[in-house]
Amino acid sequence: MLALLSLGWRKTARATPKPTRGNQERLPGIEVDELAVPAYHPTPVLKRLWALASASALSMLIGALAAIALAVSLSWFVTTLSDMLRR
User: Fold this and answer.
1) Distance CA 28, CA 5 (A)
2) Which of 21, 19, 1, 22 is nearest to 10 (CA)?
3) What is the pTM of this model?
4) Cβ density class 55-87: b for 16+ within 10 Å, e for less
5) Torsion sign, CA atoms 53, 55, 59, 57
6) CA-to-CA distance for 79 and 72, rounded, in angstroms?
7) pLDDT by residue for the chain (87 residues), tens digit each?
8) Residue 20 CA to chain centroid, in angstroms?
9) Which H, E and C letters describe 9-68, residue by residue?
10) DSSP secondary-structure letter at 77?
């Protein structure tokens, strides 16, 4: 990079426009039908609170199960290693 800068090479700030290839005709666009859609209605507050409560309960349950699994595996590991030391 230092060699390029010292030789005076520089990158132009803007890209040069690409020349067009002859006279190209514009293709016609595709017609699109506009349909009326129902207005946006926000989710009811009770439904949002239920979603929050159920997501919290599920995360607590999964966390508790993961903690139990970790505790059981660690206790088994410590018991196994301490039994190996007694031999």
Assistant:
1) 48
2) 1
3) 0.50
4) eeeeeeeeeeeeeeeeeeeeeeeeeeeeeeeee
5) positive
6) 10
7) 566 666 666 666 666 666 666 666 777 788 889 999 999 999 999 999 999 999 999 999 999 999 999 999 999 999 888 877 776
8) 40
9) CCCCCCCCCCCCCCCCCCCCCCCCCCCCCCCCCCCCHHHHHHHHHHHHHHHHHHHHHHHH
10) H
Tokens for 70? 């970790």
**How many Cα neighbours within 13 Å face the side chain of 48?**
4
- The total number of residues written for the chain in this structure: 87
The one-letter amino acid at 62: I
What are the sequence ranges of the domains in the chain? 44-87
**Please, what's the b/e burial string for 21-46 (b: 16 or more CB within 10 A of its CB; e: otherwise)?**
eeeeeeeeeeeeeeeeeeeeeeeeee
